[in-house]
Fold these 4 entries.
Entry 1:
Amino acid sequence: MAYLTSSGAADRAEIRRLGSLYDLLSAFARAKTMPDIYDAALASLAAATDSDRSALLLFNCGGESRVEASRKLSPDCINALNGYSPWPLGTRDARPIIVPDAPAEPGLSHCRKEFVRDNVHSVAFVPVELDKGVFGGLLLCYPGLDECSENELTVAQLIASHLALAISRTRAESALGESERRLQSILENSPAVVFLKDLQGRYTLVNRRFEELFHLSSTDIVGKTDMSLFEPAVAEYVTATDRQVLETQQPLTVQEEIRYRDGSSRTYLTVKFPIEDSRGAISGVGGIAADVTEHKKLESTSTHVAAIVESSDDAIISKDLNGIVTSWNKSAERIFGYSAEEMVGKPIATLAAPDLISEMPGILDRIRLGQRVDHYETRRRTKDGRIIDVSLTVSPVRDTSGRVTGASKIARDITERRRTERELAVLLKREKAARKTAELLNRVGPLLASELSLSKVVQSVTDVATELVGAEFGSFFHNVVNEKGESYMLYTLSGVPRERFEQFPMPRNTEVFAPTFRGEAIVRSDDITRDPRYGKNSPHFGMPEGHLPVRSYLAAPVTSRSGEVLGGLFFGHSAPGIFTEQDESLISGIAAQAAIAMDNALLFEKTQFAQKQLSRSNEELRRANQDLETFAYSASHDLQEPLRTVIVTTQFLHRRYADKLPSEAKPLLSTIVSAAQRTESLIRDVLAYAMASKQDREVPQLIDSNKALNLALRDLEVLITESSAKVSRDVLPSVRAHPNRLAQLFANIIGNALKYHGPEPPRVHVSAYQTDGFWQFSITDNGIGIEPTYAGQIFSLFKRLHSQEEYPGSGIGLALCVRIVEQYGGRIWLERSAPGEGSTFCFTLPAVPKSRAE
């Protein structure tokens, strides 16, 4: 029998493969584009296998396989591979394909010339697939014939599986992001008001149009009800129609007049509809509303529309050179509120705004000179005292001789336009601020997702958050408590040099800082120096002399997913009232992202340390196992010789002096011989067990398991004959194993079936079938059976369920079987058994791919 020993080179190769897989997962986590993912997969192949060239082929939308990425393959070889795939698109449960001699393979004849030119003599195709089947493949190229090993193929399959998941995830994220951006764009740019409410009538979503028309921000609206936003009568009507939608579970179209608390009102045509959650249950009310206020006004003033259309929407007024009104149309009445009877014969200065009375004489002076005033924007006062914005066009009126006798004025009310312009300016300012916020958040998100250095994560968060809220400086204090329970370490600083803090003590567990370090809530103060919690602690009772001036104060705890407070983000500004509720919300979100990123960074550091510890432990375990095997082997050999001496000597005494010994001594000699023989058998079994854990020098070959079974039955021939046993079998497969080891496996299990039999002659049947990449062997007998309670114990070393007198044995046989099966990557178990009903033992061995077996 030949034995294998562990190879340091094999260990290093395994470590290299594990390292490459770990690097691959890290690269996938950092990858931002598909090419990044492709390059990471090919780089991992190069690191984990001996393939010196590789390529990734993916099916395009037309169903054609194309080379998306390659490594060290010539352009001619890539062009030749385009359009080729060993599996059709969508193939399920595809198996890897190894081509030992690629140039000679008929199916690759179109690549023969390019393969020879690129020094490619053997290749392996590994499918890239998900639930819908194959959508691509990895190509591994080797300079020699049949160079792809089983281990390399296994690693390549793992890489292909991770690659498939990464491609699928990236495609899904891209599609989801695009869908969300489109929906958000539709909502934010819709001219209609859009809103959602929950079952309690609380707003959960409003769009930009809602904010514009109601002059409220989403933070002022979300979470509130109509009762807190509108007049009670209006709120009661709105909630009543909401209830009607929820009760009928049908859409409803209503006309609602919303009266604001300032007395103004607008009319909306609203379509309300029930909202369902993912389970189909009604979870709230949605609505889309159009502002029909102006339309209603036009309806209410329909009698005036005809006159306005016939003349003009603008006020048309005439006056003499003294500024006395001589004509006044309907539009003038509408804009300024005075009737024609009230204004004709009165001075135009009646309309002057209080601060612009001197403006009108200047306009008349220009008219007297025959000059025209075009689109002059100013303000005028209406009859009810309102000041409105108007655009004036004033032209001189001449008599038949051309002399200027008066003026004609067209006045257009531009109050709404000017208000819109002012609102637009405010919106543009808000948009600019929102864009800056989005840019900063977009910058910090990917950074936190990919960065695994704790110091870089914390510094980046501090820098971005400081800029985001407009603080003069920001800092992160790590939550480290000294023996007094009140000291915290400065971790990062942004906005000012670090030297500005070095001369001052660190924050202590005072009333101002404690809520943050305890993770209770965000603290925001317009003027921290006026906060009742400020200045209560000695020796400074506030900020030390020379400290950065702080009036506006904002602080947020950073709490990990486990609930541990990692520290706090602190921001300051020398002016009061700088930080807003929006800043508070932004910092809350950033603190949450920072906590996740810090958790990931800390976990990465712990993982790195654990990997080193695991590597060290594995090496120590390998050396311990090697020492243990050497000891078992040596001890077994050294113990056999004295035992044989004991047996021979005792047998000699029995033969020579049996007649001279007292009658009670003879059984003692028999007991000594029996015990020594059992001990010798036990030592042989221990030696066999120790050797089963050692690797044979020869690589296991593809063998016929029927022949291994024949070897086992030959060794059991005497026992089979003595027990009148019958052993049957199905046709058994070929597997990759050592013949003697597989025969030993069969012999131990079948030998137990022959030994532990009942009154009937033993009947044993051996069968095998393929499942999930393994051959499962089953050995069924009609023996005495085993209590299911002991199904796990029987495979342990020296575990016996019967006394030596009932059934002799060492209790090592099944433990030896476990060692043999696990050596080849399989497992062994008791499938079925019960007292008096026989047993079925099963074990698995990896199946050899069909292309390799042939």
Entry 2:
Amino acid sequence: MTATASRPPLLALLSGAFYLVLTLLPDSSTAVLSWPWVLIWQVGLFCPVFWLLTEVGRSRRWVWLGQGWDWLVGGGILGLGLAAMTAVYPHQARWYTIAAFCGLATLYALNHWLNATDLPGSDLTEKQARRDRLLTGQGYLGIAFVVVSLGLWATQTWLPELQRLQQIQQQFGVSLPFTFGTLQNRNWAPIGHQNYVAGYLTLILPLFAGLGLTQHHRRWLWGGAVGLGLLDLYTTTSRAGWVGLMVAAIAVLSPFLLGKAKMALSRQTLVGATLGGLGAIGLLLYSTGRIQALLRGTSVGALPGELLFRLINITAGGAMGWQRPLTGQGLGSVPLLYQSFRPMWAGREAELVFQLHSTPLQLWAELGVIGVALGLGIAALLMRTWWQHRDRLSCLTHSLFVALLAYMVQGLADYQLDLICISGLIIVLLAAIAAELQTLHSGNTSRIVSVARPIPAIGVGLLLAVILMVLPFHRAWMLSNQGFLALAQVESAKTPDDRNRMLNQFVQSLTQAHQIAPWEPYYPYQLGWVLGDMGLKQSDRSLIDSALQWFKTGNQIVPTQEFGQSNLGWLLLNTDPKAAQAAFQQAARLIPAKPGVFYGLGMSLLYQNRVDLGINAIAIDMVRDPTLITSPQWQTPQQKTLYEQLLRRTEAIYGELIDRAPNPIFMRYLRACRSGLRWWMGNMSAAREDANAVQDPLLTAILDLQDGKSVNWQALPEDASKYAIAAWLNPTERDRYLHQAWIQAQGAAPPREVMAELRATMDRSKTLTEWLRQNAVANSNRKLRLGFNVLSRHTDGINPKDFLNEVNNVPMTVFFSTIMQSMIYFPELDQGLQELRSSLLQSIT
């Protein structure tokens, strides 16, 4: 055997280098959505394609995968091609389809290198050595992943959070525990989200175990990797990851546990070890607190946010697939079309997504029957292959099947195939399995066929054509990045001329990006928002007019985005209320429970002197988002008459919903809100009637304080309102209790200026009601569209804010939010309001 026989080619090493970087790159799932990383990962995808073509051209051989996998790949290529040609958004579909084809080429490139027979000395020993080196190298990369993951999480999340909690304890005497119940505390590193990290660990942990069982001289290394990997998985608190590992382990061990296969260990030892391992996993998962939260929620008929999120995704994704059942909506269509399929009863939960958090559901929505058939085909072939060869496979190969089966289970609750580190790991495992099966059928040469000389050249030509096809994507991305870099310098510009020059560069760059890639709504949306924001701040009509045109352009590209419709409505409101009304109507059809949408619709109607309809629209928003009722914006003399009408209409809507409430839980919520509304209106007897009916201790305490009765604040439920009332009742300890109330509500230390204002306004108020209503501290803000860039699949830009300037009553929204609670998810409420919304929209039309 020559020294060069087993050395990977340069293109293979280059492909591996890209794979390593994109596996360990911090926050890689969002970094790859920015320039130049988008170019880097795509070059990394093209490298294995060139590698495959050069190897096939050199050897004039093609190595099939065998075991029926090639037929499935061929069907996948035809299906993906058909889906791309029929996609609703064809440019986005081609972008993702090209990436999928590159992944398939990578699988065949690895398969060719692992099974090539034309190299000197290439025999079964050499093939086995290559396969072992591939999996060992992947194992080392997995160890690096685990170390980087734990290191980044510990230094950037865990330790800083412990320090913050300790500072709160020392400063204010309030003890808050570190909890995985907060999403930000879970291990995101290095990929960028805890579910992604768990998905990778689900694949790599069985490989660690398999390497430990076969490489006796490194057993300490792989055993330590398993331990660290399990610790890493624990810090993600991923339920799906743990369940996937448990199901896969049981499935693969079942022939041994049931006595259907030979084993080195005694059956009693194996059963005991399996039960002990499953029990330990169950205890670890339970200790994170997420299982307790699930049990508590389901016991009272409520679901945690993650399960609600997936329930909404299932409904929307199912509808997407049913509309185009054969080929689906097309790859990349989910973030663009999702809101038009999202169910009305979802409320404010899962307003926008870029993936449906379930691999089968994602395949159904974007590829229809083709995607489902591919998914089922992969699962069936994988299980059939393992079952047919289970007695002949090596221990290491068994671990690969465990990894893939575990990931299939985990994939039911998330979609991660667009992540190179995860899809690349799956490809490595599949290629290694194919190589093992090749050694088991060493006498079968039908998997290796000759290739005509022109075919590799044709492949190179096709690849160059694909590269030319994606160049506009990259050129537009590069230009937009340059524009955002210029925009970042606008605020720091020293002179007005420099500021205008930077702004003009931003506009020119993103305009060119739009002209090159007119199918992307991101560029006109960013232009519309930035110019609109500056126009409002500077009272510059020309900037606002330009923003209007860009928002209209973005809405023409994708008419199913509430962001573009509602912000267009706010920009139009003062100059063209009828056009604003049309924009708000479209936004209301997409996300009817979004705070401010029906309020904006109502304002556009009031501006047209359609007073009754306008009052009805705003009152609907007040019922859905009662914090609007307490806003200090209504306290001006000009708003007094309108405000009184709004409160009366809001009370009437509560009455209508109460009359037809379908269950006691909904009835209690409505009467509690109406009690708070009536207290706010000054109708104390009616407020007490509702408070007595729902037996709410907080409402009762507030009404008792208004009537001059004594209140035992220590008996109130443990939340922020309890300590706010304690601050009212104990003037000498007011600062301490106000601080405690704020920390209880926000989980963070309060701003000094706000706390001083809260104390001063409370000191000069005669009653608690006067403090909350007449003397309340106001906070004016515009809601940030968190995740707008990530959900748009571009992260070069800035996260925009809504143009609606909300004026919040700080004590009511922070301390007493449960009195008139703004619910994120309450299907009965949205179903009850939908009849009123539909009737209003029909009346407007």
Entry 3:
Amino acid sequence: EVKPILNKHCISCHGGVKKSGGFSLLFEEEAFAATESGHPAIIAGDARHSEFIRRLTSEDPDERMPYNAPPLAKEEIDILKRWVKQGAKWGEHWAYSLPERVQVPGGKRFILGGLGGGSEEEEGLTGVDYFIREKHREKGLSFSPEADSVTLLRRLYLDLTGLPPAPEDVRSFLADKQEGAYERRVDSLLASPRFGEKWASWWLDMARYADSKGYEADLTRQIWPYRDWVIRAFNADKPFDEFTIEQLAGDLLPAPTRDQLIATAFHRNTMTNDEGGTDNEEFRVSAVIDRVNTTWQVWQSTTFECVQCHSHTYDPFRQKEYYRFMAFFNNTRDEDTVEDYPKLRFYEAEDSTGVAAILDWVAARSESEVPSADRFMKLLEPKINAYYADEIENGAFSQVRYLDLRHGGSARLKGILMDGRDRFYFRYIFSAPGGTLEIRLDSLRGELLAKTTFPAAKGLKVEVVPFFPVTGKRDLYLVMKNPGLAADKAVARIEWMAFRKSLPGKGEPGHGQAEEALLELLNKATPTVPVMTENPPDMHRVTPVFERGNWLVHGQQVEPGVPEALSAFPPDAPRSRLGLARWLVSRDNPLTARTIVNRFWDQVFGRGLVETLEDMGTQGSEPTHPELLDWLSLRFMNEMNWSMKSLVKELVLSRTYRQSSRTNAELLAQDPANRYYARGPRFRLSAEQVRDQVLAVSGLLSTKMYGPAVKPYQPEGIWMAARSSEKWVQSQGEDVYRRAVYTFWKRTSTYPSFMTFDASSREVCTVQRIRTNTPLQALVTLNDPVYVEAARMLAERMKEQGGQDVAKAISAGYRAAMLREIPGEKLKAFEQLYNDAYADYKADFPGAVKLLQKEETTAYSAPLVSQAAYTVVANAILNLDEFLTKL
């Protein structure tokens, strides 16, 4: 009762941003501390002598609080008076305290994932239902009857796979009269590969996954292996704790697998600014801030981004804690570079053999060096990008990221750590033939460590220069010489530089061949995906507090840590992203399980038990069923062992889920938003589901899985970015008809039909899409080439099954879409539509030819006119509200 009043009327002047009069109501110790007057404003147990209460009731407008605002209502003042009289106890917000064991109403016990329980087993109630029924009794509600079998089956398929059932699925379900038919169907859908494709779309919104980098240029990024990893993780029912750890810190696990490295692309989905003239450090910091905010949104339902500039206005998080948390992410190797390094490389079979041969060579001579050698070959991880150079003479940076050196040009690399066995690798873009690169120690006239001749040809190649034995941190000077060419022609362009020990066994036969084989592998053109890795110790970054959130104004330096208001950091966990990930999924963390359970509930029922999915803080919505939320959270962590499929099964087996979504005036008056679940879920399908369902019903849908993004139909001229020559080249064959999860996602130009149906641009984490209903959506489903082609295909099926019998053909089309027989009044309406369309196209035969894309046809044809009319009807069927809605 108290906190909402304080948040609404007091905190803006006496909280995280401002502390007028030295008085703050954000943290307990501040609320009872002395103010600027020298005395505390609240005296616990003594409302009469508390300045806090006196100011609320003062008649003097200069003294009364809130200042320059209407006074509090009498009821609000009474609540605050009673609170102070009763000791001004400082309670903990429900979301920040651990869920405690919850007794199911009625004292029932339940087997994981099963129907029934206790003496009321005949009702088919699950644990979920007892909580829902308890609230029904409180609100004067009751369960609706169960949905009919066809409606329920379609709902189940759409929720678990994102696709409708095929007619044969409906027939087999209706024919299965044995006990447990519904639960068996749930299990089969959970095991379907389509499950991962459906649920991946939901997760990819939160991961802000896209196939482009964002910002102005918004160039293509090859990160689709991460999307495929998410699909596989859902299909394999990877426990959510592992799912979390691998995405946040897979690279820090012992001997990480390729999949665990791919998983870390979760936080490489941050945008990269390829615009010339930008500050790479500014946008690196921006990416790190995005990772902090996204982590809190995805796993903690907390508006932690508020704390970047000041302590949270409403929740118990201090600004310093933001930067302590940021320190976990501030030492990743990636920077705001065009090339998106570091990248994991995928070697083909023959090249993988070469990698294994080099690792065998290393293992036979120094087992301890195997991990670093393996990492060097599989990760494109330059330690020094070209723009690190300074003291540049007769050279310049080109396109921000390249170091151009002309004849006689030089540049310094400052403070390079070497151990006496280093080899200097550099990747050059091109060089004038005959040029040489010298590497000198400590000065332009210092000791010549190495010298190499540039190859004559242009390349995107890695070259290597052996070093003389040098140890410690030293400055290196690069000197370019090419006296045989005019100065403006004798240019070498270097992209990045790296250092690595030479392979062990120097001096042995075969060592030179092994080094050459390594260099050859590094120059292989392989598919890649951006991944996370940590900086080595010599490149460790410090993390300061940004004064007022300004990245250029540094305050106190901080060490990695988590907010005091939540659970303590595990004492045995490393102060790294790995330790952080384990803290997030610790059973002592009060927010993670609640957050994920609430998100799954929202996906299934259309709204969360806490409606504000992004905020479980004091400004968020109160849970409608707090005991149910905690019961499911504890069950998810403990009995289900973080199994996401088990959680989904728990929800869809419930009587709550299986209810009819039909409503009436009385029910709408009692619970218009269905907050208390006295009827089944009913809401419009997602952008991806709308498209996938149309393709499925028409018979066009491809079941091909994984791989690079595809580019189906898109209007001309959509991609017209100022600094990009990239074009939308339509895919061919079945790729045009693949599921929406595989469609190319460009941040500055989201696929038009997805955007119209409320998909996000994925520039930032999206926890919850808005759900709108606009005329533009109807224009998409009526006119988009995808939907028109689907209508043509459905019309062909209708005519095959109905022939000249229009009623029979229309019935077949409706049955294909809605899996049931068409009601009489709808059949009449569609017959009228058919007759009207037939008359129109009989008068406008070229229009029929255009609709059916029969350009080679010129002579009038009554069958084509009929086919065009059927296409119009099919298009209308695919635009029915009941078709675009989960009922």
Entry 4:
Amino acid sequence: MVSKRSRKIAPVALALVVFFSFGVITLPARPLAPAKAGGGQGVSIDRGAAALGQAINRLGVVASVLHTGAHPDDEDSGLLAYLARGRQARTAYLSLTRGDGGQNLIGPELFEALGVIRTEEMMSARRLDGAQQFFSRAFDFGFSKARDEALAKWDREAVLGDMVRVIRTFRPLVIVSQWSGTPSDGHGHHQAAGYLTVEAYKAAADPSRFPEQIASGLRPWKALKLYARDPERRADGAKPAPGILLINTGSYDPLFGRSYYEIAMEGRSMHRSQDQGALQQKGPHYSRLKLLESSVQAEGQERDIFDGIGTGLMAIHASAVAAGMGNETASRLRAALQDAQQAADEAKKNFNPLAPSALSPIIARGLKRIVEAREMIDAASGPEADLYDVKFTLAEKEKDYMAALAGAEGIVIDCIADDDVVTPGQLLRVTLTAYTNPSAKLEAARFSHPEGWEVKAIDQTSADADGRTMTRANYNITVPKDAEPSGPYWLKNPRRGDMFVPGEGRTGIEPNAPFPLVAQVTLTVNGQKVLVNQPVEYRFADKALGEIRRELKVAPAVSVTLSPARLIFPTSANPVTLEVTASLTNNSKDGSRGELSVSGGDGWAVTPPAVAFDLKREGERASHTFKVQVPPSFSARDISVSAEARAGGRGFTSGYQVVSYPHIEPRFIPQSARARVLPVDVKVAPGLKVGFIEGAGDDFPNAVKRLGVDLSLIDPRELATGDLGRYDVIVTGIRVYEVRPDIVAQNARLLEYVRNGGTLIVQYNKNEYAAGDFAPYKLKMNRVPDRVTDERASVRILDPAHPLFNFPNKITDKDFEGWVQERGAYFMAEWDPQFKPLIASNDPGEEPKQGGELIAQYGKGYYIYSPIAWFRQLPEGVPGAYRLVANLISFPKARK
């Protein structure tokens, strides 16, 4: 029992109970998404009267829908918001992948790090549209043109099993596939998602499929309807064809003062890494669904997604009767559910946002009957499996009634830590604060956490003010010395091909690992128990942006990282000196003092051998540069350079990459302090002066600098007024015409630079580039731009004698080996005769595409469009890519 001081009402002690298992987060009395910087992170709109109104509307509803797709951004966001917030259905989106293989509009992260960003973007969107989120273990290996390729690269049965697990876990009445499973879906991942959804819909109901799930406690589930998005993408209300359901997601909701589609587009705009910013358009907007399978009788044209399906509380009774419940128990269950439904209807009718607590007795009465119904089922005879679905639905409704009761009473639980990044062995101070009406009585508090964490209650105080009670309790929590660092759970083990291997205790369908520390508070309101779960957070005041909150994270006392992660350099007959930067971050409250060293291959000289460090403050950082001498003619690509920090008698050889943007929760991606040594047999013309105009973010500038070339970034001012003629060649970053309005405005300056004798290399851009006539001569992309997605696809050099394939490196077929993910994207389909195609490439079974590298003389200079995927090859140290790029930037010298 914790200490307390007296107050006006009867004192309440928060009994401390510590437990170690992670359960479902029952209910946050305030959103899990607190106020963030600049309104980012998909700040939840579930607050105050709007949240209570939604909770009350949900009381008498048992509807549920699962939406499926292949990627983040595939989902019909308007449909999710309409179902979750308009129809109060339990709604979820299942994305087979985390979008790891896509492109990044906002930063340099690719592959797994991009998947972390897009996972968080999904969670930000879900906080707005109100749906839940699931994934499978499939890795997004990049654009695929065929379903068979996707299913061959993925473990087909494993992905299907994940989809079945989601269906059996979420138990939706209706499933809606975003994709049809046919070539009309375009992307092979889309086709695979649509195809597998139909199979998962059937397999989830078959107990002989994936029996290990049944053995672990899940039960088969048969959804009553299966829809797919109508391929006719019309957003208007035109009369649909027979069998097509039209849903107006633009319906206005007075609780929010806007439509579900507007809310959805705010969520859609959280997909910032893939240019999904959208207008929040008012007025009608429609989703069109085609019914594929149904187990219910429907007469004529459907008007509602739940036509023929009972979505009120009495549907629970029907399910119990169908399961064989005895007449006497069924009769008592009917009475309990009727009373609960009556309470739900009465609360909805009497909802007054200015007097919410007046609803508490009504909601409490309904909650009491739901609890009694659940207890009836628990005591009922018969096979447990027969009543599994009834128990599941009643448990969901119990949470809904508790949420509404907490909202009516204005119960708010906050749990704040004195640190956001904790280290193994650290003592953490946590303050739990409960803000309640006096009629809500606090009974107990406990924390869920991983095994080994120790919780000790320190003190408790209570005070009343303006008819509200604030109770505050302080705790000391000790992090175990062997605590595992925080990080995306699906990245803890190496991938197996194109499938993630989740760590122990995770299945792969969860968006993230559970919060490391969650407070659960038990209250009594009108005689009914209410459980409120609140994750422990850290908050701080940004002087410009105000309060910002962060989730609790575990990290090593000293984080050590090494950059660059790949030491790419031209081979040489002489010793080569490489520079690496070892960076330290102190996460210990007591500071860290010790020695930092770097080591390379046997006999390699490192200067300095070691440096001392003394980091006195938590969060303090330091970086030290080391010179590593590589022996002459070194060509092996299996050697690494590593860093180690020694402090307090311990060695630290790992750290983490921080992925942080204003619209998402920052995440740590653990990584070892190791850099691969990747020599490349490449030459570059001497004396080059290269200018680079940054686009959506790629490694081109660093790659060129690794070749020893003098490269400068051209800022907007220099682009507008500077002397561009001082550069031998200018290169634009990827998607520059999409993300840089100043480039669009100053395009004439770039063409003038070429006309006067310069060489301009334009990396890949999307359709707006060709449509905007930015090139000196006409270019055209197909509506669905051409791309070569097989990184092993054959490449044919169309003009072997051209300098671009001969100076200063002789390009051969070998230079197209070892590429990653793809050859390139956004190839041109047509071009003016002034352009000359230089290479042809194609995916298996397709005609050669020649629009993958085009060159044209314009005035005294040359204009080159190169949509080859340099942004993927160069960071990975692909030798042929470096040799080809070296020839591209050396072209001005080849002309002389």
